[in-house]
């Protein structure tokens, strides 16, 4: 349900915009509201589950997500839809982390890997069918059904959680680091909101820069706080490992461009290339199929060539792949367009797998859960900031290119996003001093 909802809305955004009388190019907040709330509440998910019990928190998460989906479907205006997406994000923030924690707490260790592999299947199927299903529902029903589809799934989830999941909890749990959590929220919200204000306009440059500065300041204060408080949400000792630091930093800069592709591609296909919602959704299938297929070869590639070579070369390929979408409309037919998207899906998935495993591979058992939560938070924050950056660039090029066709703004946005990703390869140059021997395999 969560994996599906992260992608199903992308192909429906233009139709939702026309229905609610909103500019389609300003619909990025529908994506940002959801992804940002997921990022904000991931750090507290594990502590709440240990404090109040796995079943209680999971039931609450499913109920919030399902009711929020109903609220989104019943929205009569843009503001109501954003509020619904915010609550969807709050519920969604607990679904995957608490589900993984339930397996960790309950299953014998010899069954854990098999169980994790099994539950990763919905995470792959969701992005595969989400864009196409969203396009189909918009074209042959109404956009409201992309949210209503969650209701029967949510009800079944509530039933099975209540009847099958034990309410495991931990005793003598240390007090939650509420102050550090507030600093993290301030950082994430201020940075994303500041970028979003750039795209919307109406605020002075000084006000926007002040919001962004507040986000940076909150991050610096949190880093100082984490060094002093042993109860910090994300402990400072995580960053002692250089490979972890490189992995986190590389994720930040790479995902600013690549993580926004599921948002900007369907938007361009519909607004600039004249595709129907269903056609745009179907065009995303080769990209996701490439992402799934390459996972079988990613570990072998890393083992053969090492993280340094793979990430240095592949980061450049991802950046050039993003730039190449500026020429997507120049293809002679749909088949070469699909091949183009498939190839990008392959290099993009290789990048995510390599970055994720590099980040987590050398953490101790005591650090693993904390490091994984931080990585999950970074992934979602960068996704929200990447979508906000797309809004900024589209708005900027729309002003610069007055009289130009709509696709002109998209083409220049792809070039800038790709250039940022290419520059991220500089981060991975620091890996040259290590001999890479991958220890784990992580799928996204």
TrEMBL record:
This is Drug resistance transporter, EmrB/QacA subfamily. The keyword Cell membrane applies. It is a multi-pass membrane protein. The keyword Transport applies. Pfam families: MFS_1. The lineage of its organism: Bacteria, Pseudomonadati, Pseudomonadota, Gammaproteobacteria, Moraxellales. InterPro entries: MFS, MFS_dom, MFS_trans_sf. It is found in: Cell membrane. NCBIfam families: PRK10504.1. GO terms for cellular component: plasma membrane. Keywords: Cell membrane, Membrane, Transmembrane, Transmembrane helix, Transport. It comes from Acinetobacter marinus. The chain crosses the membrane at residues 31-49, 56-76, 82-103, 112-130, 142-164, 176-195, 201-224, 244-265, 271-294, 306-328, 334-354, 374-397, 409-428. Residues 1-436 form the Major facilitator superfamily (MFS) profile domain. GO terms for molecular function: transmembrane transporter activity. PROSITE patterns: MFS. CDD domains: MFS_LmrB_MDR_like (cd17503).
């Amino acid at each position: 349900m969560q994996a599906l909802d992260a992608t199903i809305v992308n192909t429906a955004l233009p139709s939702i915009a026309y229905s609610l009388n909103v500019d389609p190019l300003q619909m990025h907040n529908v994506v940002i509201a959801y992804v940002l709330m997921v990022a904000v509440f991931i750090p507290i998910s594990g502590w709440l589950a240990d404090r109040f019990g796995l079943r209680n928190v999971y039931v609450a998460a499913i109920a919030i997500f399902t009711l929020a989906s109903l609220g989104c479907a019943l929205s009569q205006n843009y503001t109501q839809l954003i509020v619904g997406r915010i609550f969807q994000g709050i519920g969604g923030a607990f679904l995957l982390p608490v589900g993984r924690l339930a397996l960790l707490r309950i299953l014998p260790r010899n069954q854990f890997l098999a169980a994790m592999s099994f539950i990763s299947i919905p995470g792959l199927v969701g992005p595969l069918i989400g864009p196409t299903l969203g396009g189909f529902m918009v074209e042959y029903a109404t956009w409201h059904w992309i949210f209503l589809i969650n209701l029967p799934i949510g009800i079944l989830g509530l039933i099975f959680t209540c009847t099958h999941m034990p309410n495991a909890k931990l005793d003598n749990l240390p007090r939650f680091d509420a102050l550090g959590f507030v600093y993290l929220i301030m950082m994430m919200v201020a940075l994303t909101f500041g970028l979003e204000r750039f795209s919307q306009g109406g605020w002075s440059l000084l006000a926007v820069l002040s919001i962004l500065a507040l986000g940076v300041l909150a991050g610096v204060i949190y880093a100082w706080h984490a060094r002093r408080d042993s109860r910090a949400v994300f402990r400072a000792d995580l960053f002692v490992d250089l490979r972890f630091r490189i992995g986190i930093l590389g994720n930040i800069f790479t995902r600013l461009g690549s993580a926004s592709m599921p948002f900007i591609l369907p938007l361009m296909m519909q607004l600039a290339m004249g595709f129907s919602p269903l056609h745009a959704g179907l065009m995303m299938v080769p990209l996701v199929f490439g992402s799934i297929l390459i996972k079988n070869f990613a570990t072998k590639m890393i083992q053969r060539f090492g993280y340094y070579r793979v990430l240095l070369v592949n980061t450049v390929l991802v950046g050039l792949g993003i730039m190449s979408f500026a020429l997507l409309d120049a293809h002679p037919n749909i088949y070469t367009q699909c091949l183009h998207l498939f190839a990008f899906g392959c290099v993009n998935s290789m990048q995510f797998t390599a970055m994720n495993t590099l980040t987590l591979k050398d953490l101790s058992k005591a650090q693993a859960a904390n490091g994984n939560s931080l990585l999950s938070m970074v992934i979602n924050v960068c996704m929200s900031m990447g979508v906000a950056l797309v809004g900024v660039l589209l708005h900027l090029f729309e002003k610069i290119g007055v009289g130009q066709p709509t696709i002109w703004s998209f083409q220049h946005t792809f070039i800038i996003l790709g250039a940022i990703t290419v520059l991220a390869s500089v981060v991975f140059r620091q890996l040259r001093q290590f001999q890479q021997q991958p220890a784990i395999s992580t799928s996204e």
